[in-house]
């Protein structure tokens, strides 16, 4: 959960998000080293009147400043490609959920169960209870079991939407007439908040996403009660 004046990412709640955080720190350290070197060279050139004649025309230096950036780009590209392939991996999911975007709410269908589907609307500010977050709480949460591979099929009924939960490292476009898929594994129990991340109309800011990760037995009890109520 993000908090005011937060500078970094939210705490990771899935293995993929942990990898993304590590890559972010890796890339940021390379950017910091490059920025420090460039700043040092600029200050040195501005503050001294001495000129080294070997720098004015030197093949060795040209070779170094050609090869070194290529090596740095490789050091950034290889971990990035690895994470891209990890994010596309969907290995034998234990649960499949279809998330459909509407103007302006989400509907969820648990395709492994018969007739287990519901709509998820934002809770109005006047109906919030103490401890709930304004513009982020929903009347029905998407419940998933902890440490179980979960596949999410994302689509839309009317306009473009985007199903995004930052702490899980997920952002998938919801396109009318198209079925996109993504997968995640929650590494700990908790509530993970997200919002539609594609401008979709007047109430774009009022269609939040809440993923509730619970133990497997609790998830089975929840689905049983929901089926009985239906």
UniProtKB/TrEMBL annotation:
Residues 92-225 form the Cytochrome oxidase subunit II copper A binding domain. It catalyses: 4 Fe(II)-[cytochrome c] + O2 + 8 H(+)(in) = 4 Fe(III)-[cytochrome c] + 2 H2O + 4 H(+)(out). GO terms for molecular function: copper ion binding; cytochrome-c oxidase activity; oxidoreductase activity. Component of the cytochrome c oxidase, the last enzyme in the mitochondrial electron transport chain which drives oxidative phosphorylation. The respiratory chain contains 3 multisubunit complexes succinate dehydrogenase (complex II, CII), ubiquinol-cytochrome c oxidoreductase (cytochrome b-c1 complex, complex III, CIII) and cytochrome c oxidase (complex IV, CIV), that cooperate to transfer electrons derived from NADH and succinate to molecular oxygen, creating an electrochemical gradient over the inner membrane that drives transmembrane transport and the ATP synthase. GO terms for biological process: ATP synthesis coupled electron transport. InterPro entries: CcO_II (IPR045187), CcO_II-like_C (IPR002429), CcO_II_C (IPR034210), Copper_CuA (IPR001505), Cupredoxin (IPR008972), Cyt_c_oxidase_su2 (IPR014222), Cyt_c_oxidase_su2_TM_dom (IPR011759), Cyt_c_oxidase_su2_TM_sf (IPR036257). Keywords: Copper, Electron transport, Magnesium, Membrane, Metal-binding, Mitochondrion, Mitochondrion inner membrane, Respiratory chain, Translocase, Transmembrane, Transmembrane helix, Transport. GO terms for cellular component: mitochondrial inner membrane. It is found in: Mitochondrion inner membrane. This is Cytochrome c oxidase subunit 2. Belongs to the cytochrome c oxidase subunit 2 family. NCBIfam families: CoxB. CDD domains: CcO_II_C (cd13912). The keyword Transport applies. Pfam families: COX2 (PF00116), COX2_TM (PF02790). PANTHER family: CYTOCHROME C OXIDASE SUBUNIT 2, CYTOCHROME C OXIDASE, SUBUNIT II. Signal peptide: none annotated. It is a multi-pass membrane protein. Residues 1-91 form the Cytochrome oxidase subunit II transmembrane region profile domain. Gene3D superfamilies: 1.10.287.90, Cupredoxins - blue copper proteins. The chain crosses the membrane at residues 27-51, 63-85. Binds a copper A center. Its cofactor is Cu cation. It comes from Esox niger (Chain pickerel). The keyword Electron transport applies.
């Amino acid at each position: 959960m993000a908090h005011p004046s937060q500078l970094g990412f939210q705490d990771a709640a899935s293995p993929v998000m942990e990898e993304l955080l590590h890559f972010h720190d890796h890339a940021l350290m390379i950017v910091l080293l490059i920025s420090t070197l460039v700043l040092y060279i600029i200050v040195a050139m501005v503050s001294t009147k001495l000129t080294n004649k070997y720098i004015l025309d030197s093949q060795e230096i040209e070779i170094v400043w050609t090869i070194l950036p290529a090596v740095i780009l490789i050091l950034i590209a290889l971990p990035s490609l690895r994470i891209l392939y990890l994010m596309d991996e969907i290995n034998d999911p234990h649960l499949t959920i279809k998330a459909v975007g509407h103007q302006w709410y989400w509907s969820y269908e648990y395709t492994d169960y018969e007739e287990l589907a519901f709509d998820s609307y934002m809770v109005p500010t006047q109906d919030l209870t103490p401890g709930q977050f304004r513009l982020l709480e929903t009347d029905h949460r998407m419940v998933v079991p902890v440490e179980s591979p979960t596949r999410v099929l994302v689509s839309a009924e009317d306009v473009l939407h985007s199903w995004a939960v930052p702490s899980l490292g997920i952002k998938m476009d919801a396109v009318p007439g198209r079925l996109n898929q993504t997968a995640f594994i929650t590494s700990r129990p908790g509530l993970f908040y997200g919002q539609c991340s594609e401008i979709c109309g007047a109430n774009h800011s009022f269609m939040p996403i809440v993923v509730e990760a619970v133990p497997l037995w609790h998830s089975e009890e929840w689905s049983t009660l929901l089926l009985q109520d239906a």
